[in-house]
Write a structure and sequence with these properties.
The complex is a heterodimer. By secondary structure, chain A is mostly helical. Chain A has eleven helices and no strands. In chain B, 41% of the residues are buried. In chain B, the strands form three sheets. A six-stranded mixed sheet of chain B has the order 6-7-8-3-9-10, with helices on both faces. A four-stranded antiparallel sheet of chain B has the order 2-1-4-5, with helices on one face. A four-stranded antiparallel sheet of chain B has the order 12-13-11-14. By secondary structure, chain B is an alpha/beta fold. In chain B, α3 runs parallel beside α5. Classes of the chains: A mainly alpha, B alpha/beta.
Chain lengths: 237, 348
């Protein structure tokens, strides 16, 4: 243990680590946030409607869709969710290039992240919407609401607290994925920890990056939880 | 007028086809408060959901003012549902919306401008007697209050028909009474036809003018409430009208002669009938069992009397009691004979 500290946390290493922190941390934290927020935004834009379709298009849903179509959507989601992210990044390179013009860099990380995250978000949304009391959906239909009106006026508003919780889970998971951005030349804290920390035998940088990531997750999670609780009118104030 | 013609509904389950309704025929006139009563699993909820096509009938039709609802497409059915609205046992209010917003929901669905919808919703809050709860959330309200909001919401689009599916089952007796009063008031002042689904005879008794008794998916009896209630014909009706079985009362009796006195709206409160019989005929009847209810100042229900003495006293008692207006008398042995097959457990 003493050797370990002497090797990795001696004054020389710590001084170097401090330099790295001062020089890069603010910027790389911003990059991490940028990649995370953009990816989450687009993952929700795709995953939310898809999650709605998974629930309403179900054979027992309010607007059943053809079975083969539902099987295809479910299969696609399962396929994308089972592929390891690092492999997805590589496999998706041609698509990334087609969308953002290049296959490396921060913008290039966002594309595979969205593709990895939207099926996850769709499943979370599906879970949230299935929690909506079926009696309330029946009530909506009994009032003459169309499928669209039932989704927009009843199902989504009723599941807002649950959706916020789901999106919080999504954003923290996506934040974790951003660590792999270095594989395609993207930046961020994860990349910094690997290139400046691990590869240069500076454990202090790794540790510092880890602490910032933990803080970010804590912040996202507590803001999300608080927001969900505040929005939930089922709890008597 | 709603005409339910030869309506059947089957459900496909893993155990095969289950018949929920078979060949139901009913006519509900405008302005009726029509009770559909039956025990759990009798098919009441399915029947009421067939009226607004939440369930598509397997066979038969529902004709509303000349329109066959089963023939309408999805859009047209949605239009009809603004006119035939529904309230549920479980309130079904949006928990994330204020009460006012809940009432505005059906108005939003018909694209009423927000200001107008708000005015209409506020008006309805007055109607159901809760104007100060506009900005409360359903979680902050009692069961009775939630029910009032559910009613207000069902009235928002000015419907012609109101379907009530076990609308008072989850409420205590006092609140039930208040809600039934409100429904009656709505029926009277707005001329809305009301269809009440319930398993409680007391609900039918309190507000309905017509009633149909549903058993195992079929209508076993139908008619004016007072008629059905005083002269129940089907075994299922008797079970609902007289919750205790005839057997359970007569079994408890020693040997002796018993008569059943049925009150069909007799003005019983003014006449102490049994006491008068003692004075006038010298017959000291004992009351062995009774289930009577007052509607206004009139009595409905029955009483089982033990008559001391022999056949002569029995005949005198029957003659005396029969002379009272709106009272029917049956000798119990004879009654028990007609009520065969009532041994199974029956709940109120």
């Amino acid at each position: 243990m003493g050797d370990y500290i002497a090797t990795y946390y001696n004054p020389e290493k710590l001084a170097k680590a401090w330099d790295v922190i001062r020089e890069y941390f603010l910027q790389e934290t911003a990059v991490t946030l940028y990649i995370t927020l953009m990816s989450t935004l687009f993952a929700i834009l795709i995953g939310l409607p898809l999650g709605v379709i998974l629930v309403t298009g179900d054979s027992k849903g309010i607007r059943p869709l053809p079975k083969p179509l539902m099987a295809f959507l479910n299969g696609l989601i399962n396929l994308l969710r089972s592929a390891p992210f690092i492999i997805l990044i590589v496999v998706l390179m041609p698509i990334t290039r087609a969308i953002v013009g290049r296959a490396v860099g921060n913008a290039a990380v966002i594309v595979p992240l969205i593709i990895a995250a939207f099926p996850f978000v769709a499943r979370l949304v599906e879970g949230s919407l299935r929690e909506v009391n079926p009696n309330i959906i029946e009530m909506s239909l009994s009032m003459g609401a169309s499928t669209w009106q039932t989704v927009t006026h009843v199902m989504l508003p009723e599941s807002v607290p649950s959706l916020i919780t789901s999106f919080t889970t999504a954003i923290t998971t996506i934040l974790g994925y951003t660590a792999m951005s270095g594989a395609v030349g993207g930046g961020g804290l994860g990349n910094l920890a690997i290139t400046q920390g691990q590869q240069r035998y500076n454990q202090a940088v790794l540790l510092a990056a880890l602490i910032v990531l933990v803080i970010l997750v804590q912040v996202f999670q507590s803001v999300g939880t608080r927001l969900a609780r505040k929005c939930d009118k089922r709890l008597k104030q | 007028m709603i005409e339910i013609k030869n309506l059947s509904k089957n459900f496909e389950t893993s155990d095969g086809t289950v018949s929920a309704l078979s060949h139901v025929n009913l006519t509900i006139r405008d302005g009726d408060i029509y009770g559909i009563i039956g025990m759990s699993g009798a098919g009441k909820s399915t029947l009421v959901r067939c009226i607004n096509m939440l369930e598509r009938p397997t066979e038969g039709s529902v004709v509303w003012d000349g329109t066959d609802l089963g023939a309408l497409d999805k859009k047209e059915i949605q239009q009809v549902r603004h006119q035939i609205t529904m309230i549920f046992q479980s309130f079904n209010l949006l928990m994330q919306r204020t009460c006012l917003e809940n009432i505005m929901l059906p108005l939003k669905l018909i694209h009423m401008p927000r200001a107008e919808a708000k005015a209409r919703a506020s008006e309805l809050l007055e109607t159901v007697g809760l104007p100060d709860k506009a900005n409360a959330y359903p979680a902050q309200l009692s069961g009775g209050q939630r029910k009032r909001f559910a009613i207000a919401r069902a009235l928002a689009t000015e419907p012609k028909v109101l379907l009530c599916d076990e609308a008072t089952s989850a409420l205590d007796p006092k609140t039930t009474h208040a809600i039934l009063e409100l429904i009656r008031e709505i029926n009277r002042t707005m001329g809305i036809t009301v269809i009440v689904i319930t398993h409680q005879m007391s609900v039918v008794q309190e507000i309905c003018n017509r009633v149909a008794i549903l058993e195992n998916g079929a209508v076993v009896e139908e008619g004016d409430v007072s008629e059905v209630f005083s002269h129940p014909k089907a075994a299922a009706t008797r079970a609902l009208v007289f919750p205790e079985t005839v057997d359970s009362i007569t079994e408890a009796l020693e040997s002796g002669q018993h008569i059943r006195v049925i009150f069909n709206g007799a003005i019983a409160s003014k006449e102490p009938l049994i006491a008068k019989m003692a004075v006038d005929c010298g017959i000291l009847a004992s009351i062995l069992g009774a289930s009577t209810r007052s509607i206004g100042d009139r009595a409905y229900g029955y009483m089982v009397l033990g008559i001391p003495g022999g056949p002569e006293e029995l005949a005198r008692a029957v003659k005396y009691l029969s002379g009272t207006p709106d009272v029917t008398v049956q000798v119990e042995a004879e009654y028990a004979g007609t009520a065969s097959g009532k041994g199974e457990a029956i709940h109120g």
